[in-house]
Amino acid sequence: MPSCIPSPPFPHFQRKELAEYSTFGIGGPARFFACAQNVQAMREMLLYAKAYQLPYFILGKGSNTLFDDRGFDGLVILNGIEGCEHHEGVFKVGSGYSFPRLGQISAKLGYHGLEFAAGIPATVGGAIFMNAGAGPQQTFDALHTVDYLTEEGALITFKKDQLQWGYRSTSFQHQKGAIVGACFVLSKQEEAQAHQRKLLSYRLETQPYKMKSLGCVFRNPQGGIAGKWIEELGLKGLRVGGVSVSTKHANFIVNDQEGSAQDVSELIQKIQERIYKEKGVFLEEEIRRIPYTGPEDVSS
Ligand SMILES: Cc1cc2nc3c(=O)[nH]c(=O)nc-3n(C[C@H](O)[C@H](O)[C@H](O)COP(=O)(O)OP(=O)(O)OC[C@H]3O[C@@H](n4cnc5c(N)ncnc54)[C@H](O)[C@@H]3O)c2cc1C
After folding, report:
1. In this structure, is residue 269 part of a structural domain?
2. Which of 61, 150, 201, 229, CA to CA, is 20 to 30 A from 30?
3. Are residues 91 and 168 in the same domain?
4. Contact in structure between 248 and 292 (CB atoms under 8 Å)
5. Dist CA 143 CA 128 (whole Å)
6. Rounded average pLDDT over 42-49
7. C-beta 129 within 6 A of ligand 1
8. Is the pLDDT of residue 278 over 50?
């Protein structure tokens, strides 16, 4: 990365604390921080980062993002592309639009497919990127098209069958650029709202919903349920520094005493080692760790 980079030519902050922008409440400062409120602003920010070979990160609600304690030595682009239009089951949304709000609106109108979204504190873009889901429902089931901005500033509309997706994985996780909008096509179902209420109350009963967390930390392994395995080994409540395994849901790590990314890393490693010893399986992380990328970063 060039050491001398001119200040971004768009409204931005310098050294904004990232802990404020993750539901985990963890993370040091971003070198540059800006909010893209429309597609053109997102394009300018991507082009600027590319021109100066500056690492960048597209941020939704930060509900799956573990920032480094040293922060991020690059440009963090907060996605503020809002907007939601709907007509007869077709919902066109900006990627910064609230995913739970989309779930609530669609179910209230009697549409089925995104009931599960109501409890997920995400943006539409983050939910697409992760293929967020709960139970048998996942984001890609209801997805029709995605508007995508490449690093070179070209806007492409992908049809769903041009994309790859699986359990909490999508082709976007291997691409550079930004999801800027999407279209979902939903079908009518009278019970949609009642179904959503049931899902929400189950979530509130079984998850530490009001605590600082990133949701489930580990992907479920083939033929197993990560949370169940962690609970069976008696690891609920296990603590490193300011973070601990939730006593309510064993696949959640909660930041209940002003923990750090280092605490989280150590706790994750302890869990992985115990599970590997007992089950012979390495638990993979579902959360996204964002490396610092700065000059003294020896890990990259
Ligand atoms: C209490 C709680 C409950 C949760 N429950 C669930 C659940 O039931 N199911 C589930 O799947 N997840 C769940 N999660 C995890 C999380 O909400 C999802 O992974 C969600 O999809 C993340 O969305 P986000 O907007 O917060 O993304 P962020 O955390 O901001 O970003 C996640 C990744 O997506 C990328 N990204 C985000 N937006 C864009 C974009 N516009 N273009 C390109 N890349 C982008 C980021 O760069 C990053 O790599 C939960 C989290 C919490 C805190």
Report:
1. yes
2. 150
3. yes
4. no
5. 8
6. 98
7. yes
8. yes
Instruction: HSE, CB side, 13 Å, CA atoms: give it for residue 37.
Output: 3
Which amino acid type is present at position 130?
Answer: M
For residue 101, the CA-to-ligand 1 centroid distance in Å is 14
CATH, residue 142 = 3.30.465.10
Whether 203 is covered by a domain: the verdict is no
Indicate whether residue 149 lines ligand 1 (CB < 6 A): no
Q: Which ligand 1 atom minimizes the distance to the CA of 116?
A: 8
Q: Residue 68's domain is classified under what CATH number?
A: 3.30.43.10
Q: Which domain holds residue 123?
A: 84-194
Distance 211 CA to ligand 1 centre (A): 16
d(CA 37, CA 144): 23
Q: Which atom of ligand 1 is nearest to the CA of 95?
A: 41
4 is catalytic: no
**273 and 225 part of one domain:** yes
| Rounded average pLDDT over 95-106 | 98
Q: What is the pLDDT of residues 153-209, one digit of tens each?
A: 999 999 999 999 999 999 999 999 999 999 999 999 999 999 999 999 999 999 999
Rounded to an integer, the average pLDDT of 94-113 is 98
